[in-house]
Design goal:
It contains 12 helices and 4 strands; from the N terminus they run H-H-H-E-H-E-E-E-H-H-H-H-H-H-H-H. The chain has 306 residues and is mostly helical. A hairpin with a 7-residue loop joins strand 3 and strand 4. It has one domain. Its main location: membrane. It is a multi-pass membrane protein. Its EC number is 3.4.24.-.
Length: 306
């Protein structure tokens, strides 16, 4: 197999359902993005250069620097094989199994037991485990978690989630700018300015809600897909199920302040910092219910056993 092919393909099982959902989400997000920017240009004709500058600048920043921003925000610090031999060894084994390039390896100094992967491609990928996770998991459990995270990189759903989240960020920024009165004054000197200042926050809020729901639907499915791909790659669904049970069970022992700090990045984490049993909470959750994840792993374990 050529080096180029090994970079674009891995031994992670393909998931057509995930691919379909990613394409659909990207199409709807793109359509929403075009409508949103078009609406802004229609209302803010005199400020169209500023609109395009902000939209383009945020997109470039989100796409090119999102991995660094996420890693920095979650306190990830890159480590060498000498500094973290066990973590690097586990990543090496998973990458050898998956036949994929080794990502950068990092550790986050927090007692919250979790892990995440980020990066717009396999070449720029970073996988991070927290010190709380490394202290609590057995080697086979850690490999299951890392295989789960690296499947996000192999399936490229990290990139899709990054781009999909961009529109929500843009909508929020535009709403704040409109509320501050930064637009309209130069483009409209009549009542149109007042109408724009009233409507833009409303439109931005609607766009944010739609993009939020779309990314949440994709996020829940991609977590199930990553569980399945990791279990099939390692051949040990029970180890991943044990890690899931241990991580979610330990969350209740973490100080609320630390959980609140980790909660904004739930979509990146292996397991959410908070989980809700309420129906509305589950609808808005970035992860599927623990019971559903464990049930899928139990079925896979039975299939592999046969």
């Amino acid at each position: 197999m050529s080096a180029e092919r090994s970079r674009s393909h891995s031994r992670y099982v393909a998931d057509r359902g995930l691919t379909t959902r990613m394409v659909t989400t990207m199409f709807l997000i793109g359509l929403l993005y075009v409508v949103f920017v078009g609406t802004l240009l229609a209302f803010l004709r005199g400020s169209w250069p500023v609109v395009l500058l902000i939209a383009g600048g945020l997109f470039v920043a989100q796409f090119w620097f999102s991995d660094r921003i996420a890693a920095y925000s979650m306190g990830a610090r890159e480590v060498t094989p000498e500094q973290a031999p066990e973590l690097h060894g586990a990543v090496d084994r998973i990458c050898a199994l998956a036949d994929m390039p080794k990502p950068r390896v990092a550790i986050a100094e927090t007692d919250v037991p979790n892990a995440f992967a980020t990066g717009r491609s396999q070449d720029t990928a970073l996988v991070c485990a927290t010190t709380g996770l490394l202290r609590r998991l057995e080697p086979e459990e850690l490999e299951g978690v890392l295989a789960h995270e690296l499947s996000h990189v192999a399936h490229r759903d990290v990139v899709v989630m990054t781009i999909a989240a961009f529109l929500g960020v843009l909508a929020g920024v535009m709403a704040r700018v409109a509320l501050w009165g930064g637009f309209g004054r130069g483009g409209h000197r009549d009542g149109g300015a007042a109408v724009a200042v009233l409507l833009i926050p409303v439109i931005s809020a609607v766009v944010y809600v739609i993009s939020f729901l779309l990314t949440r639907l994709l996020s829940r499915y991609r977590e199930l897909s990553a569980d399945r791909a990791a279990a099939l790659l390692t051949g040990r669904p029970s180890a991943l199920a044990s890690a899931l049970t241990k991580v979610t069970g330990q969350m209740g022992q973490i100080p609320t302040r630390d959980l609140r700090r980790a909660e904004p990045y739930n979509a990146f984490w292996f397991a959410p910092a908070f989980s809700s049993k309420e129906s509305i909470g589950r609808l808005l959750s970035s992860h599927p219910p623990l019971e559903r994840r464990l049930d899928q792993l139990a079925r896979l374990s039975a299939q592999l056993g046969r």
